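Technical annex, item 7. During the second reporting period the consortium partners agreed on a shared format for inverse folding records so that results from different sites could be compared directly. Each record opens with the tokenized structure and is followed by the designed sequence. A conforming record, contributed by the partner at site C, is shown below for reference.
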């Protein structure tokens, strides 16, 4: 204080609620000298009394105390009446000031990235109280890149007032398709002109965004629900997980068809009393969305509940159908797809025409293309839906590499060498960058990206057998100094069902290889359990791990190890044994090397072959490989040891 007061008395002192600042002596000093005392730091309230913005009925501003921070811009506030709110810093006001004036119910809470008060007569938001770097506007995003903040949007001369379409971010063709889709929404009555006398005071203004879906050749209007979602509790315990649903779909038979609901979420009505909370501005006029908006955190749960209710009306149809969001998989050996379409239409839900795997083009199932194999035994095969994304990003950044890696491997059940290779690129990008959007100039990483793209263009390993049946599976596991991997294969056909790989972290680089082999075995068991298999043949090339697990299952001998990691080994073996017991699994553990040696040449040959050179990922991508490991030792981690091998799904 002495150093500060050397320049004269300040107009304002900002402090926390420490004892020195809330004592009577300090209060007398500030009052005597006409100093304004603010007991919180601007935009960084921590453990202080504040006023929090309310959005429902009751006072607009409610007093409380900040309990904890929830990230860089959110705080948890406990109100004086005991309620617990989560609020953005911009929705909090210092309690050191006089209480903010409670505004009338006709004032608008402008959800999303538009912050400030908006004049209902059509004026611009009052943002005079915001700092320059806080004035943000809605953005246009693409499905190839996460949303990023943009500058002030320019108004298109063709469609003035559309907040969601800054000319700098949307090409003219995309703009036209976006505006055409909005006009369709208005014509269909999904967006209605808002009338305050009929619908009541406006309670929320939500920015529109454009999402370009290149795979479906669509431009979808999406409401920016990020702010509104902060006030909704989305229970995720029953949320559908795509990977889990994909496993169920592959076990649903081979005479199947897919039905997609038309404009699924826009078929779900919203109660009229909720219309004031989701208004948008289109062509300078306020509209309200009368249906469930895509992007609302509870939208998928609502859709799931509606589909479940419709299925509950017919046990026969429910038995033959597996739903996932708005996609319905029908086993036509039990009931026809047309019958399912009629059933949903009877309850007001329109469906598109069914896609059947028997059709020449096959059917699109959860992002994959499934069709019958031509010229063979007629089994169902899956592959990517559309062109393989072999072309790397034009500008290499951490964000673009992560997005590309996700497109390559995230939704495919089998990726072979590509899965650990993509994971390695992500790790390398993390190491050579400090943020998400700075261009990468590292020559080694750029060469690695080019090498992966070249090899992927030559042969994409993401394909394989679709149908999975029976209760038996063969689980192959392996580990090295770089990664550990698991492959599940059909014991009858030898086809790969699913694979997975995990790079070893820097923290466990000193872990003994047998422990990593044991971890791979546990990962394989977990994958087998997720599929519901009951008979498991586990194959590992570690004789030690084979002995540990066999002895644990048979009980014929105690675990024999005196290594420093004895307790870690015992814990893993105990978990393995417990999994086998709790899920009533019949497990056989044998040596993978023996099984591989017994394979015939016919089993290793495939219809389509492509070279896979040994110069693959680790030989070039191991930027920071352990010093004690020679480059030749890295190859088995994610690449075959042969000079060439067939391009299979595994």
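Designed sequence (site C submission):
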């Amino acid at each position: 204080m002495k150093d500060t007061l050397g320049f004269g008395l300040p107009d304002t002192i900002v402090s926390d609620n420490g004892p020195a600042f809330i004592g009577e002596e300090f209060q007398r000093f500030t009052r005597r000298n006409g100093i304004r005392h603010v007991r919180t730091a601007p935009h960084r309230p921590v453990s202080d009394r504040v006023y929090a913005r309310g959005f429902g009925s009751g006072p607009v501003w409610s007093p409380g105390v900040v309990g904890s921070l929830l990230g860089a811009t959110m705080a948890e506030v406990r109100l004086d009446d005991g309620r617990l709110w989560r609020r953005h810093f911009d929705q909090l006001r210092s309690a050191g000031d006089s209480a903010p004036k409670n505004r009338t119910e006709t004032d608008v809470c402008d959800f999303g990235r538009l912050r400030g008060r908006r004049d209902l007569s059509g004026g611009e938001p009052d943002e005079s109280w915001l700092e320059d770097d806080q004035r943000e506007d809605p953005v246009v995003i693409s499905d190839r890149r996460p949303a990023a903040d943009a500058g002030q949007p320019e108004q298109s001369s063709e469609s003035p007032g559309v907040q969601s379409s800054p000319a700098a971010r949307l090409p003219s063709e995309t703009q036209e398709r976006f505006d055409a889709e909005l006009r369709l929404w208005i014509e269909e009555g999904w967006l209605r002109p808002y009338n305050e006398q009929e619908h009541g005071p406006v309670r929320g203004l939500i920015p529109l965004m454009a999402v370009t879906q290149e795979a479906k050749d669509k431009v979808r209007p999406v409401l920016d629900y990020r702010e509104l979602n902060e006030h909704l509790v989305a229970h995720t315990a029953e949320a559908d997980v795509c990977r889990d649903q994909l496993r169920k779909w592959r076990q649903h038979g081979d005479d199947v068809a897919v039905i997609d609901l038309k404009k699924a979420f826009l078929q779900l009505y919203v109660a009229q009393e909720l219309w004031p909370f989701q208004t948008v501005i289109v062509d300078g006029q306020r509209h309200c969305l009368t249906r469930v908006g895509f992007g609302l955190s509870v939208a998928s749960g609502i859709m799931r509940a509606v589909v479940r209710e419709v299925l509950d009306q017919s046990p026969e149809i429910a038995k033959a159908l597996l739903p996932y969001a708005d996609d319905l998989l029908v086993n036509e050996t039990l009931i026809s797809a047309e019958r399912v379409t009629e059933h949903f239409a009877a309850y007001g839900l329109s469906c598109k025409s069914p896609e059947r795997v028997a059709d020449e083009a096959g059917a699109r199932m959860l992002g994959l293309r499934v069709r019958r194999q031509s010229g063979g035994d007629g089994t169902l095969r899956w592959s990517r839906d559309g062109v393989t994304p072999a072309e790397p990003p034009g500008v290499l950044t951490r964000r673009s590499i992560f997005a590309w890696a996700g497109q390559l491997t995230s939704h495919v059940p089998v990726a072979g060498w590509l899965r650990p290779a993509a994971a390695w690129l992500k790790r390398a990008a993390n190491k050579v960058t400090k943020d998400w959007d700075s261009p990468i100039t590292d020559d080694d990483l750029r060469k690695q990206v080019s090498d992966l793209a070249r090899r992927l263009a030559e042969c994409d390993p993401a394909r394989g057998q679709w149908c999975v049946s029976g209760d038996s599976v063969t689980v192959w596991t392996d580990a090295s100094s770089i990664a550990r991997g698991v492959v599940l294969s059909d014991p009858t056909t030898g086809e790969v069902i699913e694979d997975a790989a995990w790079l070893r972290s820097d923290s466990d680089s000193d872990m003994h290889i047998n422990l990593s082999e044991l971890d791979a075995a546990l990962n394989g068991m977990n994958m087998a359990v997720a599929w519901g298999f009951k008979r498991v043949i586990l194959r590992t090339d570690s004789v030690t791990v084979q002995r540990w697990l066999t002895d644990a299952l048979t009980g014929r001998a105690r675990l024999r190890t005196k290594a420093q990691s004895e307790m870690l080994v015992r814990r893993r073996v105990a978990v393995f044994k417990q999994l086998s017991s709790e899920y009533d699994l019949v497990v056989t553990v044998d040596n993978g090397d023996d099984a591989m040696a017994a394979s015939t040449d016919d089993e290793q040959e495939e219809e389509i072959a492509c070279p896979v050179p040994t110069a693959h990922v680790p030989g070039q991508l191991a930027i920071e490989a352990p010093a004690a490991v020679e480059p030749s030792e890295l190859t088995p981690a994610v690449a075959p040891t042969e000079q060439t091998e067939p391009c299979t799904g595994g």
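The longest strand covers residues 61-69. The chain has 20 helices and 28 strands. All partners now use this format for quarterly exchanges.
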